[in-house]
Amino acid sequence: MAGTPLKIASIVGARPQFIKCAPLSRLLRQRHREVLIHTGQHYDRDLSQIFFDQLEIPKPDFHLNVGSGNHGEQTGQILERVEEVLLQENPQVVLVYGDTNTTLAGALAAAKLWIPVVHVEAGLRSFNRNMPEEINRVLTDRLSALLFCPTKTAVDNLKKEGITQGAHNTGDVMYDAFLYNANRSEKISTISARLSIQPGSYYLVTIHRASNTDNPENLRKILKGLGHLDLPAVFPIHPRTRKALKKLEKKLHSAKPLQHLIDPVSYLDMLILEKNARKVLTDSGGVQKEAYFLGVPCITLRDETEWVETLQGGWNSLVGTDPRAIGLALRKDPPRGSRPETFGDGHAAEKMIALLDQL
Ligand code: UD1
Ligand code: UDP
């Protein structure tokens, strides 16, 4: 039996969090009262507003306009401003998503006010503490009362850290979002016509991880690796990467096959670009999974992945930044193995809502 409706504050701020919150927010609002807080970590239209419009996410009740900054500065400002809102709104639950500075600051603000924290996408680990996201994940999981794990691996990771209470394998809300939007993207996206690209005739590239953008040597090596492409690349460039490339004074256009250097695209455009790519080269967590959902081979420009399930059957290859390894992965035959459904059944949001009644 469903319990009393709750007042729930959901805290989002960065691109993948908008995508994750869309399916959950839609269901949540059928029974509970949601107060949506946008920290403003991402603020460019193509990293923020476009997702609210396209995925029909309700307008945030609070926009904190925090913007960019160093880790301490950004995390500190979010902490301060979220606390103010939580004190004013007094929600019974705080929902945070993923592993960004928004996630950690939101969880910390809530935990200090004794508001139960619910972590969507709990238990993921790269086991690399040099990643800011790893620190955000580990600490957020520690602070959470309910931990919604997208995979069994995530539940097991938490168990190894002694966290069992409140941890549940709900499946991945990004899979919910993917299933909900796959057909919509076919109907709505015009990206293929705009770029004049045919299915299978290009590689899709995304890079934004700090270890790849803030380290000029790594970025240079990746660009060298991309020199092995035998087809044009479509490369929606994250602003962080655009800045890093400028600093490197490397004219990407000089790398011949990289023809479509574009601004970040909408989610529906991205799903189409992923679906029709020969292969995907990325350091993004979400993009690795979407390539797996779509059965498109993925080359991951990192040494480790939190989404180890995508490595099954050779659908995802970890190549780091070594140009030769990138070249070899590009030439590898497409995998033939099956892709087990390890990210849930597309009903993660429903399971999460049912579990909220445990609080
Ligand atoms: C953040 C997350 C990362 C996530 C990614 C999703 C952290 C530590 N990192 O990384 O886990 O994978 O979001 O995309 O929280 N910028 C703009 N316009 C914007 C936003 C950012 O130009 O709207 C530029 C600024 O120069 C900024 C830089 O991008 O300094 C990095 O932004 P930031 O939010 O700090 O980190 P991301 O790299 O986006
Ligand atoms: N994405 C998008 N447009 C882009 C690049 C990515 O809509 O130009 C989507 C992508 O399909 C996935 C999510 O953003 O759903 C992944 O976010 P990102 O790569 O920023 O962060 P990560 O998943 O690595 O945290």
Specify the CATH architecture of the largest domain: 3-Layer(aba) Sandwich
Mean pLDDT reading: 95
User: What is the terminal-to-terminal distance?
Assistant: 14 Å
Q: Measured on Cα atoms, how large is the radius of gyration?
A: 20 Å
The number of domains is: 2
Q: Please state how the strands of the largest beta sheet are arranged side by side.
A: 3-2-1-4-5-6-7
Instruction: Supply the helix-strand structural class.
Output: alpha/beta
Bound molecules: uridine-diphosphate-N-acetylglucosamine, uridine-5'-diphosphate
| Percent of residues in β-strands | 5-15%
Number of helices: 15
Helix content: 40-55%
- Number of beta strands: 13
CATH topology of the largest domain: Rossmann fold
Report low-confidence residues grouped into runs of 5 or more.
none
Word description of this protein:
By secondary structure, the protein is α/β, with parallel strands linked by helices. The protein folds into 2 domains: 7-172 and 344-357, Glycogen Phosphorylase B (Rossmann fold, 3-Layer(aba) Sandwich); 181-331, Glycogen Phosphorylase B (Rossmann fold, 3-Layer(aba) Sandwich). 44% of the residues lie in helices and 14% in strands. It is built from 15 helices and 13 strands. The protein has helices at 15-31, 49-54, 71-89, 101-112, 132-143, 152-160, 173-188, 191-195, 210-213, 216-226, 239-248, 267-275, 285-294, 323-331, 348-356, and strands spanning 7-12, 33-38, 62-63, 93-97, 117-120, 146-149, 167-169, 203-206, 233-236, 260-262, 280-282, 298-300, 316-318. The strands form 2 sheets. A 7-stranded parallel β-sheet has the order 3-2-1-4-5-6-7, with helices on both faces. The protein has a 6-stranded parallel β-sheet with strand order 10-9-8-11-12-13, sandwiched between helices. α3 packs across α4. The longest helix has 19 residues, at 71-89. It is globular. The chain binds uridine-diphosphate-N-acetylglucosamine and uridine-5'-diphosphate. Residues 15-16, 19, 206, 208, 236, 264-267, 270, 284-287, 290 line the site of uridine-5'-diphosphate.
